[in-house]
Amino acid sequence: MKYKSIKNLLIYGLFPFTAFVACTQPQTNKEDALASHIDTTVNAGDDFFDYANGNWFKSNPIPASEQSNGIWQLIQDTINEQIKDICISSAADESAEKGSNKQKIGDFYFSGMDSVSLNNKGLDDLKPDLGNIDKIKTTKDLFEEAAYIHTVSSSPFFGFYIGQDDKISSKYAINLFQGGLSLPDRSYYLDNDARSKNIREKFTEYITNIFEIMGYEQIKADAAAKKILKMETDLARTSRKREDTRDPFTNYHKMTFAQLESLSPAIGWSTFMNKMGLNNIDSVIVGQPEFFTALNGYLKKYSIDDWKDYLKFQFVDGLSSYLDDKTFMEGFKFYSQTLRGIEEPKPRWKRVVGTTNGSLGELVGQVYVSEYLPKGAKEKLLEIGNAIKAEFANRIKNLDWMSDATKEKALAKLSTIVMKVGYPDKWKDMSTIHIDRTSYVKNVISANKWETENMIVHYGKPVDRNEWHMQPQTYNAYYNPSNNEIVIPGCNIIVPGYERKMADDAILYAIIGGSTFGHEITHGFDDQGSKYDAMGNLKNWWTPEDSAKFHNKTRMIVDQFNNYIVVDSLHINGEATQGENIADLGGIVMGYEAFKKTKQFKDNEMISSLTPSQRFFLGYALAWMVNTRPEALANQVKSDVHSPAKWRVIGPLSNMPEFYKTFGVQEGDKMWRSKNQRVKIW
Ligand SMILES: [Zn+2]
Predict the structure, then answer these.
(1) Which of 257, 428, 474, 590 fits 518 for a cystine, CB–CB 3.0-4.6 Å?
(2) Mean pLDDT throughout 321-349?
(3) Are 52 and 148 members of one domain?
(4) Domain edge (last residue) among 305, 322, 339
(5) Are 227 and 252 in contact (CB under 8 A)?
């Protein structure tokens, strides 16, 4: 994935058109955004990220309601304005037919903007469900409620999803993996530095406050919070580290349902699965069996009443953003302020637009494509995508470290990569979802329920390879190894600063070619993707010698990133981020090679006194023009598989001789590496 992981999508992407209304224009000179962003007080070879973007950062401080400022905010602001128009015009049309897309979008938005009603209700809409948790008497009851919470709110106890079987991509499987935590990573529970200790203290206060809102007296609320921290710390201790969940082979344990029950007999598996709508299960895939054995023990270590509190917290916590202001602010103070350094909430309309889009994205997307996606976007994206794919094939053929046997398989895999670009041919059917104006949180619950049921219904059916897991208005992209496909939503065509004219090929080939298509295609050949074959099955297709050589190269990337200090003494986790870092390096190399074949490059055409190659590398830095608060950087380093933006620029470029040549990088410059320290994989 280019940017964020699923639940917390931000984005990343491409080029520009007259149809886009940019509400927040970058401070550019009217001629050329690239040239105007350069900070000439920085030496390009010391810190190319600050050199290329510094001037923009200086004149665009991070807003109080954001964790960062830069390209993502500019693009998201553009898209938000468009979705807001869709929401407002839908809500204003009171004659919209009941059950129509327009009625659903309009009513959803209206319910979120109705702050008076929201604040009058408090937790009222959740009371029947909280009452059901109160009635729990046995472990069986516990898992019946846990299944319900999985369907509508958060994921207590463990992670669960229906997806393609890693080893049989033509079949859907039930996947179970470690989870049940409220904080973004296990390390938050276990690390003993001052930052982590402070976060745990604030987390306990947050849980206490949520229980008080639920009606607990202070002493009881405080005791419940401390207990939940203890329980989640146990779950964290028995969870694998982020980097240890990367190997798809060691995180794949297929077993029969009977084996699952004997692995963890205290978990009410039948109850859980039946409540989820799953019966007659022959097998399941368990990511980390030892986690489920440990969970089995914790179910006895803590009382049913403790687990009831855990479920109540998980349930309300997962929905706190859609409740009254008091509850919302408790969640904001902890997750946004403490964890990410954000000073104040976004305006209500922005939050509600985000939630409407998150919940009804398939419906919003249909309007977005017909009214806002520039004509020709899909074709331009495909043109660049095909150029990158062709370049990748050339590179594989010419690799000096790979044997012909492995090359043949790599080329076969590359040639079968499916490129889904723009928007889906077929939209998902959301006709069964009920949305009205009476309750915002109930609308969110309906949408979550639809989402879960839509996932469950796949089980036992043939695999639908036409399905998309992102929408055209999502500024992000992904590679799915089971389908050997890349998915590039249409809005990746946007480039801030070039809304009213097409950006030049240098920029397009850097951002769309390198950071988007090149990045996603390389995921098919990173430390994880390379373990899946052309059919999308987890299977080793490498000769042992080539595999060892590949590992040595990726090891160098791991070491390079382990050496980058981001904030305090926190360094990037080179193991956990290696897939993304490999994809970034492959992407920029492919993008540059493809750019060399364009007219702009061949004619050596200067724009704003910049050569084509200078524009290409500056364009690449624009793709990652993001200035981030230190708290958010610390959080990213601890919980994200992507390196922070700055290192996504200086890391890959420090390995590229073409970059050294273009900007005169010399020994002694901070980004300089000796020739034998530069990594070249693809
Ligand atoms: Zn990625």
Answers:
(1) 590
(2) 98
(3) no
(4) 322
(5) no
- Mean pLDDT of the chain, nearest integer: 94
Q: Can you give the pTM of this predicted structure?
A: 0.93
pLDDT digits (tens, 9 = 90+) for 115-141: 999 999 999 999 999 999 999 999 999
The residue among 307, 322, 337 that closes a domain is 322
Averaged pLDDT for residues 194-213? 97
94-110 burial, b at 16+ Cβ within 10 Å, e below that, comes to: eebeeeebbbbbbbbbb
**How many angstroms does the Cα of residue 463 sit away from the middle of ligand 1?**
24
**Cβ–Cβ under 8 Å, residues 590 and 512:** no
- Ligand 1: centre distance to CA 310 (Å): 34
Using the predicted structure, report yes or no on whether residue 339 has a pLDDT greater than 70: yes
Q: Does 481 lie in the same domain as 583?
A: yes
In a domain, 635, yes or no: yes
Helices 304-319 and 218-237 sit at what angle, rounded to 10 degrees?
90
Taking only the tens place, the pLDDT of each residue in 15-38 is 223 233 333 333 334 579 999 999
pLDDT over threshold 70, residue 76: yes
Best CA proximity match to 540, nearest among 167, 246, 165 = 167
Residues 484 and 551 reside in one and the same domain: yes
Ion ligand 1: residues, Cβ under 5 Å: 1, 580, 583
Gap from CA of 479 to ligand 1 centroid (Å): 8
DSSP 614-642: HHHHHHHHHHT-EEE-HHHHHHHHHH-SS
Distance from the CA of 37 to the center of ligand 1, in angstroms? 26
The kind and range of the H/E element at 570 are strand 570-571
Q: What is the CATH number of the domain that holds 219?
A: 1.10.1380.10
Distance (Å) from CA 481 to ligand 1 centroid: 12
Q: What is the pLDDT of residue 501?
A: 72
Query: How far apart, in Å, are the Cα atoms of 470 and each of 200, 290, 450, 475?
Result: 33, 33, 16, 9
CA of 406 to the centre of ligand 1 (A): 24
What is the distance in A from the centroid of ligand 1 to the CA of 348? 31
pLDDT at 500: 65
Task: Examine the pLDDT at 261 and tell me if it is beyond 50.
Answer: yes
**Alpha-carbon 439 to chain mean position:** 28
Q: Tell how far the Cα of 583 is from the centroid of ligand 1, in angstroms.
A: 6
Give the residue numbers spanning the domain of 380.
Answer: 6-60+375-428+467-677
pLDDT tens digits, 418-455? 999 999 999 999 999 999 999 999 999 999 999 999 99
User: Which residue type does 200 have?
Assistant: R
Q: What is the CA radius of gyration of the chain?
A: 25
CA diameter of the chain: 76
**Interval between CA 110 and ligand 1 midpoint (Å):** 35
pLDDT digits (tens, 9 = 90+) for 133-166: 999 999 999 999 999 999 999 999 999 999 999 9
Residues 250 and 379 in one domain: no
Q: How far is the CA of 319 from the centre of ligand 1 (A)?
A: 28
**Distance, CA of 427 to CA of 423 (rounded, Å):** 9
Ligand 1 centre distance from Cα of residue 478 (Å): 7
Question: How many A from CA of 494 to the centre of ligand 1?
Answer: 19
Q: Residue 282: which of 376, 173, 377 has the closest Cα?
A: 173
Element (H, E) at 255: strand 253-256
What's the domain count of the chain?
2
